[in-house]
Amino acid sequence: MPCSPLAASAARRFVRAALADWAALEVPAADRVTDQVADEAVLLVSELVTNAVVHAGTAVEVSCALDVSDREGEPPSLVVEVTDHHPTRVVRGDPPDADEPPEYAGGHGLRLVAEVAESWGTTYRRATKSVWFQMAVAPSGPAAAGGMGSAFMDAVDAMDAAAAMDAMDAMDAVDAASATGAGPDGGFGTGVVPEGVGPVPEGLGPVGDGRKEAVEAVEIVAPGQGLVPVRRDSEWIQRGALSFLAEASDLLAGQFDEDMVTSLAGQLLVPRLADWCAIWLDSTSGPPRLARVWHASEGRIEGLRQVLEKEPPHVPTAVRGGAVEWPWPADPAAYGPGGAALACRLVAGGRALGTLLLGRAGLVRMPAEVVGLIEDFARRVALALASARRYTRQATISRVLQRGLLPSVIPRIPGVESAVVYEPTGEISAGGDFYDVFPAGDGRWCFVLGDVCGNGPEAAVVTGLVRPWLRLLAREGYGVGEVLDRLNQLLGEEAVEQAVEGAAEAVVAGVEAVGGPAGVVELVDGGLVGGAGLPAGGGVARFLSLLYGELEPLGDGLGVRCTLASAGHPLPLVLRPDGEVRTVAEPQILLGVVDDVSYESESFDLTPGETLLCVTDGVTEHRSGDRQFDDEDGLAATFALCAGLSARQVAERVRRAVDEFAPDPPDDDLAMLVLRVQ
């Protein structure tokens, strides 16, 4: 069913039509479906489809089946499953909080399902999420006539009664308005798509053969409760197990948060290999932490968590990554009926990271195929946890390092409004662009925008040397050109080269720089606005481009005197209040390339209302195909549209223009410094 307001109505007609078709075809146990069960199933499927349309926003699939058990005395049951194609979107069911955003507001949804259904749960797959519920039908004899069942009336009492009756009236009204004819032909039959609803879009249909093979193979080696295992050849089972492991590896790869790894692991295991599972993570400073609890019946998750917190498993230290049988817990309310359980230590690189505990009801012991599959799966989970911890550790080191490389706040310059935007391309290694604004004494204020050639720890060393050198030289009274001359000489000294090479050798072996979501630093007039990250990468870095300048107030509200020089850096622009843009300064060679060079500075006045824009090449060279952002003076054209805006608004306008220039984010660090005379 496509994502539309008519999906819930179509789902209700589908369930009614399926029940009518089964009765007409004399499907076994179809005559035991009472009106009470039918009404309650229609109500619940309506709630779940509405939930999926509103919160997942994808096409929806509905399946309806009669589960007839071979066990004596166990009544048949009606099973309905609603599937959407947004597995990362959480299932909403609780009433919204007063301060919750409107887009997350939910109805009675899962509360109603939990009250009415005999059992229910959620199944996560790689590309889909399914919510199912199961309802027992009459034990024998034809369906009895009747109205709403007692379970439904209990749920109505738990809800607002008026709201519940309004919902039922609205459902009947929508069904009557959308019906195209009487009888089963007017709704959904098996394999029939209702008129006006249209086919499911390509790619959103049933799972592919490979996925079905993996799921079926798991059901063969670990049959669900009440299911009779089907005998297949060992090669077929092995092929399905490999498909399951390949899917698990694909999902776990690239996850750099250990809690996300444990969440995915639980969703992969339950209900394919187990009815419930729990994962503990070891800690160097305390007892293991229960990171994830998962149960096929979601109503039991909280009770299971409470029991597990009191009874954590203690696997013998001699067991290194192997699965051992574990006594089935004694609390049936949390775990379900008796079965087989396994505990497995999560070990990667010879180091224990945690413990996996899982169980499957209805088995005396886990089949050998399942034990081997779980051990292989546990190794993949352990490797993903080890990668996530390395990433977290490296990101923490980089954030600490950044505090020494970039200023925490931008000081207020009298009579000048300032804004800085800094967007690195990664978050676990330092380097790349840098900036600074500081007082130099005698009423002078200095500003710096630089870009080290390269990034990683070597670039961080250069940045860590250049910023304090600049501050020291400026406060010693050297002019703008002289500061660059002496900085160029310092970069050529052997001690700097040794420091850079030492930084490269100090990189911890085995810790790779992995790109992640960009952090953003934004500083406006002394205030820290955003978070921060650091770019990833590496390479030898001793050369840098630099834009360095000084501001001196002219007094009497006349503006400031600006003196600056550019060493291999994109030239700054000045915007007048009337929208005219001009380039200031002359291009000169990079710092650290040639020893015997003299840098020249340029001075000009910035009057009230004028704005100075300084950027790194991450702005000017941002690419869209064969074009760059600054081709045909693209930066100047964007800057000209910023007349009358504040420094912060100018920075936001330019940054937004860069983001909109290409569909892909910038692949280089981006930094901007905006100074506007008030």
TrEMBL record:
Protein name in the entry = SpoIIE family protein phosphatase
Pfam families referenced in this protein's UniProt entry, alphabetically: HATPase_c_2 (PF13581), SpoIIE (PF07228)
Q: Which UniProt keywords apply?
A: Hydrolase
Task: Say if the entry is tagged with keyword Hydrolase.
Answer: yes
Q: Which domain of life is it from?
A: Bacteria
Q: Does the keyword Heme apply?
A: no
- Which organism was this protein described from? Streptomyces javensis
Q: What is the lineage of its organism?
A: Bacteria, Bacillati, Actinomycetota, Actinomycetes, Kitasatosporales
| Domain PPM-type phosphatase: from-to ranges | 413-677
